[in-house]
Amino acid sequence: MATEHILSLLVAERDKLNKAIAALGGTTAPASSPKSPAPAAAAPAKKKKRKRKPLTAAQKKQQSERMKAFWAARRKKLAKA
User: Fold this and answer.
1) pLDDT the model gives residue 20
2) Where are the domains positioned within the chain?
3) Stretches in the chain below the pLDDT threshold 50
4) DSSP state letter for 35
């Protein structure tokens, strides 16, 4: 076999593997040769980061009291065991 033919087979195999990895991983691999452009349809949709409303001072105080009670009860339960 000619070296050029072997090289073209290897490039074709690499392109197949890149497509498979992109499909499984959800990302597109950059095209390594101009003959094989990366598929545009395989680009993953970006997830929006969920934003939370800031807690007011009163809400922070209530949460603090709940957590203090929770941990006190947990320490008491572990002390019995």
Assistant:
1) 87
2) 3-43+55-80
3) none
4) T
- Tokens for 65, please give them: 């009291």
According to the model, what pLDDT value does residue 23 have? Answer: 86
Residue type, 1: M
Q: 29 with 16: CB under 8 angstroms?
A: no
CA 14 to chain centre: 24
Copy the structure tokens of residue 66: 């709940």
Q: What is the DSSP letter of 31?
A: P
- On whether the CB atoms of residues 58 and 76 are closer than 8 A, the answer is no
Q: Helical H runs in the chain?
A: 3-25, 57-80
d(CA 34, CA 47): 30
CA distance 27 to 38: 10
Amino acid letter, residue 14: R
| The residue type at 26 | G
Q: Can you tell me which residue has the tokens 């197949």?
A: 16
Residue reference for tokens 């939370």? 52
